[in-house]
Amino acid sequence: MITSYFRRHPRPRGTAASVRYRFRTWRGERPFWAGLFTLLAGLPILYWPYAHLDLGGIPLALSTTSGAGSLIIGTLLITLGLTLWYRGHLRMFAGIATLLLTLVSFPVANFGGLFLGLACGLLGGALACSWIPPDTTESPAAHTQQTATTTATTTVPTATATTNSTSEAVPTGDSRRGN
Length: 179
Known about the structure:
Blueprint: H1 16-28, H2 32-47, E1 52-55, E2 58-61, H3 67-86, H4 91-108, H5 110-114, H6 116-130, H7 140-152, E3 160-162, E4 169-171
Antiparallel strand pairs: 1-2, 3-4
Helix pairs in contact: 2-3, 2-4, 2-6, 3-4, 4-6
């Protein structure tokens, strides 16, 4: 078996740990969960109007006149989910459009995909509107070093009491002075 023109064997692009690290980095730079929930909201909205189920020999079809509306809303929600993944700067537009399309799907598309698409769409739209991009001016190593020094240098303040005759602070609860 010839693997390449120069007879070199292809090298894997990385180990599983490096692939996982690259995916984690990619996921942290965009509203990943908002896109996932928005994409998942479009699937039941698309599915239920075209599904033909048999329950104990009784055919159950939810195909109504809302089939075209369900097709449009479901396709747009899937597109908005992909937009959130690959065009994160459009998150406010995509989030508001997701919320509006999800609310419109309730009366148009069989109760918003039997409430599955409605719940996922509202969650995805809310996550998209509330997501804030990470600060790119600070490196992750500096952030971990800053939190380590902050936790190491925190001290517990002691209570002090002052008297009217002197302005000197006297610590309260000091066991060495017999208080």
